[in-house]
Design goal:
This protein is an alpha/beta fold. The chain folds into 2 domains: about 240 residues, Aspartate Aminotransferase, domain 2 (3-Layer(aba) Sandwich), CATH 3.40.640; about 120 residues, Aspartate Aminotransferase, domain 1 (Alpha-Beta Complex), CATH 3.90.1150. The protein has a 7-stranded mixed sheet, sandwiched between helices. Strands 12-13-14 form a 3-stranded antiparallel sheet, with helices on one face. Helix 1 packs parallel to helix 5 and helix 8 packs across helix 9. The longest helix is centred in the last third of the chain and has 22 residues. The chain is globular. The two termini are about 20 Å apart.
């Protein structure tokens, strides 16, 4: 593999970041020309736009009619925190973590909310915990897709239909790319800047009737900041789920999300979105099968993410390097690809094992994934030649 020539073909779009993610194919700033900038989001035109996001989201994802959909501040993090602080404490909690974001929710539940009855069900990067250990008669908090580990929940079969607890699912890098079993989920959150490549700052919060019932019948023992409050006088603040957002949204970001949703509809809806993402994973899988240096961080194909695809270096020379040199070598691969303008922001998450993370969500063209893969070989060959003397 030494001295590989630079590949002749470059990705048309080198944006493979896992968030914010690539814009939909063909996107230009012209997509934002309908944004009612300089107008109040509470004016009729603003509220109509916000309601359009909610209605199109429901239609594309097939969210049940009796589930509430709200636009909330502070991205996916804000949506998850609203759910945790507003809903938890009524019963015991099983908190699942197999990567950094899940670990963050465990920390919030244990150290910030200080709930007394919490079981952490965990697994290392690249693996999924034993879901048979989870008790869905307790509240369950989990990420559907581990963005920083490339590991996803394969299905919702482990969640009981007649559960007594609530399932609170951070689905930010899963929704629009994976099939979500809505009947098994009580709270679902995500951010616009993930699978549809929208602009940041806003989060989506979906509540089942069971979650609404909890909100209206249970009052947490701790004070809630105004930005987290979903009820008033013991009743759900209905306006949040009809376009009356808690704080001022960016109407440019709203317009961008409408554009992304219209694009999703135009290509065939959720089935097409899932198909595009799975095709990207399949292209990488074929390449890994032939590679003599790269492997998936997630060894079990059944739990591999089709959005945040995490790779490690399996070449024996890499294992012989010190941990410090492994990290440096992986960063050098990323740097070379960035310098060549063929892949931006594909380094592994800072807490994850050294390697690469390639976004394969629905807005990424499979042709761009296929064009990228020879460049990975080229960059690795350069780095191996540079670092090999360190193991001699």
């Amino acid at each position: 593999m030494t001295n590989l020539p630079r590949p002749a073909v470059r990705p048309a779009n080198p944006n493979f970041s896992s968030g914010p993610c690539a814009k939909r194919p063909g996107w230009t700033v012209e997509a934002l020309k309908g944004a009612p900038v300089g107008r109040s989001h509470r004016a009729k035109i603003g509220k109509v736009k916000l309601e359009e996001v909610i209605d199109r989201t429901r239609a594309v994802l097939g969210i049940p009619a009796d589930y509430r959909i709200g636009i909330v501040p502070a991205s996916d993090t804000g949506a998850v925190e609203m759910a945790l602080w507003s809903l938890l404490g009524a019963c015991g909690v099983d908190a699942l973590a197999w990567e950094s974001f899940g670990e963050g929710w465990v920390t919030d539940i244990v150290k910030q909310l200080k709930l007394p009855d919490v079981r952490a069900v965990t697994a290392p990067y690249g693996e999924l915990p034993d879901l048979s250990q989870v008790d869905t008669d307790r509240d369950v908090v989990f990420t559907w897709n581990g963005t920083t580990a490339g590991v996803r929940v394969p299905n919702g079969d482990w969640i009981k239909a007649g559960r007594k607890g609530l399932t609170i699912c951070d689905a930010t890098s899963a929704v629009f790319a994976m099939d979500m079993p809505w009947d098994k989920l009580d709270v679902v959150t995500w951010s616009w800047q993930k699978v549809l490549g929208g602009e940041g700052a806003h989060g989506m919060l979906v509540l089942s009737p069971r979650a609404v019932e909890r909100l209206e019948t249970y009052k947490p023992a701790w004070p809630l900041p105004k930005i987290f409050r979903l009820t008033k006088g013991g009743k759900l603040i209905d306006g949040i789920f009809k376009g009356d957002t808690i704080n001022t949204p960016s109407m440019i970001a709203v317009e961008d999300q409408i554009d992304a949703l219209r694009w999703a509809e135009s290509i065939g809806g959720l089935k097409a979105l899932i198909g595009r993402s799975e095709a990207n994973l399949a292209a990488i899988t074929r390449w890994v099968g032939k590679s003599d240096w790269a492997a998936f961080l997630a060894k079990d194909a059944k739990v591999r993410s089709c959005t945040s695809v995490c790779l490690i270096v399996s070449d024996p020379f890499f294992a012989a390097l010190s941990a410090e040199d492994q990290a440096a070598a992986a960063k050098k691969i990323v740097s070379l690809l960035d310098k060549e303008g063929v892949a931006y922001d594909i380094g592994a998450y800072r807490d994850a094992p050294a390697g690469l993370r390639i976004w394969g969500g629905a807005t990424v063209e499979t042709s761009d994934i296929e064009a990228l893969l020879p460049w990975l070989d080229w960059a690795f060959a350069q780095v191996k030649a540079e670092f090999a003397p360190k193991v001699l």
